[in-house]
Specification:
Structural class: mainly beta
Radius of gyration: 17 Å
Largest sheet: 7 strands, antiparallel
Distance between the termini: 6 Å
Shape: globular
Number of helices: 2
Helix content: under 10%
Strand content: 35-45%
Order of helices and strands: EEEHEEEEHEEEE
Length: 214
Amino acid sequence: GAERQRLYLTGDGGLADGPEGASRQYVYDPRQPNPTLGGRNMLIRNGRMDQRPAQARPNYGLIYTGAPLDADLTLSGPVSVTLHVESDCTDTDFIAKLNEVLPDGHAMLLMDGVTRAMYRSAVLDPARARPERLEPGQVYAIVIELGEIRHTLKAGARLQIDIVSSNFPRRARNTNSGHALLAADGEDAIRVATNSVRHAPETPSFVELTISAG
């Protein structure tokens, strides 16, 4: 009683039935990571929390928001995000958040996931868990698994996808150094990354949702 549905991230910051638009970019500075606001945490505040305080930060990342729903929508199963990306650093993180934007504007976190760029192949095949550093000017496919969910969005709400590169302290910050052991990096290893997301038909970025038919 469920089916997979794909929504494409578009160059104008929307979610649509097909890919379109120019690429978008943002700057990620490991010295100023985005704060964790809710989520599947144990030692810090958890659950569904409004993401607007983080979204208002300079260089937060990219936000993609769909149109208001005409009817209730039940998500029931796995969620994943596929991005076509480029970075001027040899490594960085790509984090996807799935939010529910309520009619009053609250952007409530439903779930999130992360993929470290130079271990992107391990998402599809754990046997390939070896570093593959990024080359500036090259476009790469990155898959981010967010997990499974059972949640109903009411009519009038909107789906929202945030693409960022930090979620601290839940996720240890990526220094963008390209070093396998980030915990050993000192201040001199930190690199500021300019990360881009593509939206063209030949390099689409999209979210895949499992929609309940009942």
